[in-house]
C-alpha cells in the first residue's frame, strides 16, 4: 500500500521538473530567436516572478542596486558632514571677530568713562570756585 502512494507522489515531482525544464527551454528559445526582444521578455519574466534563472539575475541586479545606493548614501553623508564642519569653522571665525569687536568696544567705553570722570571733576571744581 505504501508503493502506490509513492508512485502517486513521484509523478507530481516529475511534472514540476518537466515544467521547469520546459520553462528554461522556452527562455533559451526566446533569447536565440529574437535577441532584440530578449531583454524585454527577460524583464517581463523578472517582473512577474519568473524561474530560478531570472531570480538569480534579479538578485544580482538587487545587489548591484543596493551597492550603488550604499555608495551614493556614503558620498552624500560625507558631503553633508564636510558642509557641517565648514559651517562650524565659519561660525567660529564669526564669533571670534565679534568677540574681538566687543573687546575693542569695551576698551573704548572704559576710555569714555575716564574722560567722563575727568569732565565731571573739572565741572565740580569750577562750581566750587564760583
TrEMBL record:
| Alphabetically ordered keywords of this record | Membrane, Transmembrane, Transmembrane helix
Task: Give positions of region: Disordered.
Answer: 36-55
- The transmembrane segments are 64-89
Is this entry keyworded NADP?
Answer: no
Cited InterPro entries:
DUF4577
What domain of life does the UniProt record list for this protein's source? Eukaryota
Q: What protein am I looking at? A: LSME1 protein
Amino acid at each position: 500500500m505504501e508503493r502506490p502512494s509513492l508512485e502517486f507522489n513521484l509523478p507530481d515531482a516529475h511534472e514540476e521538473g518537466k515544467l521547469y525544464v520546459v520553462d528554461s527551454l522556452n527562455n533559451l528559445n526566446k533569447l536565440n530567436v529574437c535577441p532584440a526582444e530578449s531583454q524585454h521578455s527577460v524583464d517581463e519574466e523578472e517582473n512577474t516572478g519568473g524561474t530560478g534563472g531570472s531570480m538569480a539575475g534579479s538578485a544580482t541586479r538587487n545587489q548591484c542596486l543596493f551597492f550603488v545606493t550604499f555608495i551614493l548614501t556614503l558620498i552624500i553623508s560625507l558631503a553633508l558632514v564636510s558642509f557641517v564642519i565648514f559651517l562650524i569653522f565659519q561660525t567660529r571665525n564669526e564669533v571670534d571677530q565679534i568677540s574681538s569687536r566687543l573687546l575693542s568696544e569695551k576698551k573704548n567705553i572704559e576710555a569714555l568713562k575716564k574722560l567722563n570722570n575727568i569732565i565731571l571733576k573739572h565741572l565740580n571744581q569750577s562750581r566750587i570756585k564760583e
